[in-house]
Amino acid sequence: MANVNTRALPLNALRAFEAAARHLSFTLAARELHVTAGAVSRQVKVLEDYLGVAVFRRLTRALALTPEGEAMLPRVREGLANFASAIDMGRPRESACTLSVVAPPNFAARWLMPRLARFTTTHPNLELHVTSTQEMVDRRDGADAGAPPEVREDAPLAMVRFGAGQYPGARVEPVFTAKYVPVCSPRLLRGVHALRKPGDLRHHTLLHDDTVVAESVRPTWSDWLQSVGVTGIDATRGPHFSDAALAMDAAVEGLGVTLAIKELLASEIRTGRLAVPFDIAAPTTYAYYLVTPHTHAEHRAAAAFRDWLLEEVALERAG
User: What domains lie within the chain, and their CATH numbers?
Assistant: First the structure.
């Protein structure tokens, strides 16, 4: 392997590039790095001058990676992770501890997983056990399902609950409300019957999420169409799915339009896999909450996860 002059590598520029590529935004990258958006932009320019090629295409209100940027991003991430690992090995070792995180399946897959690497990289000595279960959705009878049996009883516990926010015996932090909006493939925004106004839905397939939750929590197509004053559309037509993730995957594939929680789909919307043709939310009473039993609320692992999750939410909201 050829020797590399590491003193000449623009390490700050590489870090700014990785953050901007992950968020596809100089502003969100700046908030994560605790600098200004201008500073991130300047560091990216330093990298581009160093390489002699552009790594981003600057669009009107967004960023897109160039082929060169796409090609180098995985290796940059790997390199930064190796740097972090090397630094961690040089530090005095802290005692390892375990944290059990339990969340509804849709939240775990759509919101938590795309962001979780940033938490585990920052806390390499924390042994994380993640469980997704529908038990984290408040039941129709109002009973508290509590922690599922898979959770280790001797580990600190952080739960993400989808419900009304009443969880006695626990520290409760609101994460975000459930704003159900129509989502679809960007392909449906083009063509003869492009989705430009709610009435255009009469030309498209409606996808239905039949996940069992408490009554009046998740709006139906009938609820949404009524809220925007659209009539003459059969709100029951179209395929039904037993799982919200299946309905969203069908929308990604262009099968039709579904109602989904916008905040869960930030990654798909940012990368252009999904679009929101009408940013009009139907009302609902449920929200996502971070719930930590009082017995574990001040444990360093639970506190670290709580601080990280709420910071991620704040960054997303600010962007």
Answer: 7-90 (1.10.10.10), 97-176+286-318 (3.40.190.10), 180-270 (3.40.190.10)
